[in-house]
Amino acid sequence: MSSSSDYGPQSGQQNVMKTIVLEICRQVQAHTGEQIGEMLAAFVLKAVVVNPANAFRIHEEFTTDDVDKLIRLSVAKLIERDSPELDTVRMQVFYDTNYSNEAELLEEHRKALHNKLMPIRLEITDSRARNAVELEALYRKIVSYLLLRSELGVPTDITVVRETTAALESVFPQTELGTFMSLLKREKEIQLRDLCMIVAGIRLFNKHCGKGGQGIEDLPDILSKEVQGVAKRLSARLADCDAYALGYQELIRAAGQAHDGSERDANHLRHLKASFVNLQQFREAMLTLHEDVARSRTKLAALEERYHERMTSLRALVRSKTAVPTSQVYPQFIAASNIWTSFQHELFLLSVRSRLLTALESFTGIHSQTFNQQQVAALGKRHVQLQTEQMAQRAEANAQLAARAAAEGTISIPGPQALTAGGGGEEGGESGGGGAAEAAAAAAEGGTDGG
Prior knowledge:
This protein is mainly α. The chain contains 16 helices and no strands. It has helices at 13-32, 38-50, 64-78, 84-98, 102-125, 132-150, 158-171, 177-181, 185-208, 219-258, 263-320, 326-361, 365-370, 373-407, 416-420, 434-446. The longest helix is centred in the middle third of the chain and has 58 residues, at 263-320.
């Protein structure tokens, strides 16, 4: 271990903390066989440092003993079992490192696809094909690139390859490869991009007309089913949260009343409050995912309408003329391709949200240990009953207010939000109201006592 002069905030503190974090990760793995992330170790390390009970002098240089104590307390916290506090920290760190907004996720997805296609794209743009055999091989490589980029069918399916080749030949015959070879590299990349969209649009249109589209999945139908499934799962988790919240409030109230000042009762009460905080954090994550999926459902409806309109427009254009000018039909194919790409993006986003939901559920096992299924079902019914009674009371109060206002010759009718404020399991309800804030404060105060 280094000397005490290495550990102060004025002497390479960031490097020292990095070393401490790595040592914490190493010791946790030695104890449990589990690899933990540096961010989780750093999160717990910070909590241990700022906990007044641990008596670290954070504005002074850390001694060797301080560092040893810091590592020991952090490791002890990270190897705890049946700890709602640790599960909450794990959940928060996992969520922070894995949840991104749609724009960020799609940008990462585009970069990944761009990097994946880079080798074959470079083979095409850097090609120096001269004879017929080499040019034919280059053309086949372009077909493969279009298939990989559009993700419309399996590139090794011979029927898909033939269909894509036929679509490409209709807009870019092999005889034009000479002109393509004379372009600058950036111009070749742009032409490849445009060809990909036009060929994809042709294949999508053929599928719509029942004359092709081999290997192209019915994404609108798949997405409709998937979004319903994920939304149903999220609604079920939110309903569970409402039921658990009601149960915890009652248990915390009863434990507080029965508290006799013993350490055992204090630990039991702290455990319940920490479990409640875990529940509230999980619920917040579920609400965010629920909002994301609701937006996705709205977007899908709009995309389906646009796609149907585009295909209807294309059919009318093709039927009305024997030969359709490329200046009219190519933009239509490109637009259809872009809409389909949006479908693909929505499927990607939905899969990310679904995986995140599954992962977050793994941090909430403490609740099923506290309440069995029968208790959860009963609590859920009581929560709905309480919400219904509260809404009825609000409606009655608003009706009395409106009647009194009418009798006095004034008009004061509350809007729809006034009649439903606080209601609904998915929007907050009242079961997790002030009690949640009190539980959070209490758990935060005692959350690192064991460290």
